[in-house]
Design a protein that fits this description.
heterodimer, A: mainly alpha, two-stranded antiparallel ribbon, 76% helix, globular, B: alpha/beta, 6-stranded mixed beta sheet, 13 helices
Chain lengths: 308, 388
């Protein structure tokens, strides 16, 4: 039982931290620049493809990860300079239209370059097996690669905290999120700040794509489903707040994992087996949306609104 | 007056589809992108290989194969099938991988009086009460491969089994097929989302149940991810994996690699089967595509041969639906799996074999046939079928 709970908790943490990498960039772009970026999921997909391609070329996952993330960041820079800069001043509808077009272009481009079939990306051989450790006299197993993902997630979260809370740039970012006009009036180069934030957000979601590639599959359309989850996270956490994104990610990650693991068993105790097997998975997949609705009912601005 | 008008309209419509006996058109709708793409691509490649060997002809007539990707979505499949049926007026349809898509597309095809030769999806519905003269399955009924696994798990004496399958019609068929022959304890039936790729939560649950055997049916990319994550979670030490051939064929082995060695699975076909047709198929497939064929490829190949034999039998008069149905039922072709017959519900009566994954003489990780599980095995639904 302890093994089950510990393993599920780690699974929830791993999933939540990866969502955080995605949501952090999204919430900053949305919160500071007031720009809805639907193509954030496409940057995640492109990042994963870059990492897969670089891994194949370099024959090393870690080099591939570094090169792939750098490549995606460069693409983010080009996108910001050419397209997003024009979008900040427009209304949300134009932003939605333009970034939706980007999703279609990205999917088609990836299909043309890498084909419609998923690209295989394997974790380094050393991390392919489970890790064995003892706790309270019991032996536990957990996949080594997932532990590495958790370590990456915690590392990035810590780095972001230091960056946002302890540095001057972070202060500008926070100021930009809570009142953009005032920040500009104080003489801060908001344009350069926006570019930096956008590129940083792109790098984070490419990192998530590259890290999750070996666990999932690198394929066309992988960004859309995860984008919806990322939006749920930033709405729960409060738009523009890094802390909110972290808390929201961990909540969504754990609720989704625990729901999938426990709901079917729970329902089987209450309902006939046939009904439970139909209802359980269905209910588990809408659980996070129920959670979002509940949180918005009590806190319409999310848990940690940036413009409080 | 009205019935006569309808009859006239029907006659006119039929006249519209009559061929000058010049060309056979095949509508091929399959899953060619996304996590299920490996299956559709193999069926297509098998089908195309047969077409190439037949010099692009079916039954001696020049043939045209129209291919569409359903992206594993019933809606897109339905649109593509509608176009093939109404605009292109195809003579045969084939290619669909997933049973939920088959059930969505089937009614339009049958209404249009077009023969569907299924090279994969074999839903229980079309084997039983909803059986249809225009539906043939050249592969198997969905339950069959699972029944074979159930039998082997039972015979090998496993007592505590967990079942993992996606929550869709094919998954339900898998569970009922498996449990028809496995009588021991089922610790848990785990239903996942169709297309799910991360199984962390399910694997933790499986670990806590400590089963001695695990039966999973996760076709395509789902199975690849499941086996990879199963091994990396360290579960393969205590739990023996069993799967139908779908989840343990060349597509999965190529992606997962040597950690699949020792896994048992069931199939109606294997690339090491010793008959002349199969040897030619396997050799030509490898030459053409530079990889070993999977059971899906063999099914696509057989579907093309089946059309070829039937068209030849009716001397190209495919507009005579009754004669064409008889010719299809008579199975005028030599299958790469050896001999088999069609049952009254147009599903095969055939042998099922046990395969194990290991290294072959050339050092490749691949399937090896170990023995026969069922001889001349029919599906469980045929009694409910009243074929018109």
């Amino acid at each position: 039982m302890t093994q089950l709970l510990l393993e599920q908790a780690l699974n929830g943490l791993q999933f939540g931290l990866m969502l955080f990498l995605l949501a952090a960039g999204l919430t900053l772009v949305f919160g500071i620049m007031d720009c809805i970026n639907l193509a954030h999921g496409s940057l995640y997909m492109v990042g994963a493809y870059f990492v897969a391609a670089a891994t194949q070329a370099a024959d090393s996952f870690w080099i591939g990860l570094g090169v792939g993330v750098a490549g995606a960041a460069l693409l983010g820079l080009l996108l910001e300079l050419s397209l997003f800069r024009q979008l900040y001043k427009r209304d949300h509808l134009s932003q939605v239209l333009a970034t939706f077009a980007l999703i279609l272009i990205a999917n088609e481009a990836v299909r043309v370059i890498w084909g419609a079939q998923p690209v295989m990306l394997n974790p380094p051989d050393a991390l392919a097996g489970p890790v064995e450790f003892s706790l309270l006299g019991d032996t536990f197993f957990y996949p080594a690669y997932r532990l590495v993902i958790i370590a990456f997630g915690i590392g990035v979260a810590g780095l972001l905290y230091l960056l946002v809370a302890k540095t001057r740039v972070g202060m500008w970012v926070r100021a930009g999120a809570s009142n953009r006009e005032m920040t500009e009036a104080l003489g801060i180069n908001v344009q350069a700040l926006f570019t930096a934030v956008f590129v940083f957000g792109t790098a984070l979601c490419a990192l998530a794509g590259g890290l999750l590639g070996p666990l999932l599959a690198v394929q066309v359309g992988m960004g859309e489903s995860v984008l919806i989850l990322a939006f749920v996270v930033i709405i729960i956490g409060g738009i523009g707040s890094i802390r909110g994104a972290l808390v929201g990610s961990l909540i969504v990650g754990s609720v989704d994992t625990l729901g999938r693991a426990l709901l079917p068993t729970l329902l089987r105790a209450l309902l006939p087996a046939d009904a439970a097997s139909t209802l359980g998975p269905a209910l588990a997949s809408i659980l996070i949306y129920l959670l979002m609705a509940g949180i918005l009912f009590f806190k319409p601005q999310g848990l940690f609104p940036a413009r409080a | 007056m009205l019935p006569r008008l309808t009859a006239l309209a029907t006659a006119l419509m039929l006249a519209g589809t009559v061929h000058a006996g010049d060309r056979i058109k095949v509508g091929f709708v399959s899953t060619l992108s996304g996590p299920g793409a490996g299956l559709g691509v193999d069926i297509r490649d098998g089908f195309n290989l047969a077409m190439k060997q037949l010099n692009g002809k079916l039954g001696g007539l020049p043939a045209e194969v129209l291919i569409a990707d359903d992206q594993q979505s019933p809606d897109i499949a339905k649109q593509a099938a509608d176009k093939f049926l109404k605009k292109d007026k195809v003579d045969f349809m084939t290619g669909i991988v997933f049973s939920n898509i088959m059930l969505a597309v089937g009614p339009t095809v049958f209404e249009n009086k077009t023969f569907y030769i299924s090279a994969n999806a074999g839903p229980s519905q079309y084997a039983g009460e909803q059986c249809n003269p225009f539906f043939f399955n050249v592969a198997w009924q969905n339950d069959n491969l699972h029944e074979a696994v159930g039998k082997i798990v039972q015979d090998k004496g496993y007592k505590n089994v967990v079942i993992v399958t996606p929550n869709y019609p094919g998954g339900k068929d898998a569970v009922s097929g498996f449990k028809r022959y496995y009588k021991g304890k089922v610790a848990e039936e785990v239903y996942t989302k169709l297309g799910q790729l991360d199984y962390a939560a399910e694997l933790a649950q499986i670990r806590s149940l400590k089963p001695d055997a695990l039966f999973f049916f996760l076709p395509g990319g789902m199975g690849i991810n499941f086996v990879k994550q199963f091994v990396s979670a360290g579960l393969s030490r205590d739990t023996q994996l069993f799967a139908p051939g779908f989840s343990a064929d060349e597509d999965v082995i190529k992606a997962v690699g040597s950690s699949m060695m020792g896994m048992f699975n069931s199939s109606h076909w294997a690339h090491d089967m010793d008959n002349a047709e199969n040897k030619r198929f396997v050799a030509d497939f490898q030459k053409e595509y530079n990889r070993l064929p999977s059971l899906y490829a063999s099914q696509g190949y057989d579907a093309a041969l089946m059309m070829d034999g039937a068209v030849r039998d009716v001397k190209g008069k495919v507009e005579d639906k009754a004669a064409l149905q008889k010719a299809l039922e008579a199975k005028r072709f030599k299958s790469v799996r050896g001999d088999f017959k069609f049952n009254t519900n147009h599903y095969p009566v055939q042998n099922y074999y046990l395969r194990a994954i290991g290294k072959d003489a050339q050092g490749r990780v691949t399937n090896k046939t170990m023995g026969t599980i069922f001889t001349n095995h029919a599906d469980a639904y045929v009694a409910q079928c009243k074929m018109k």
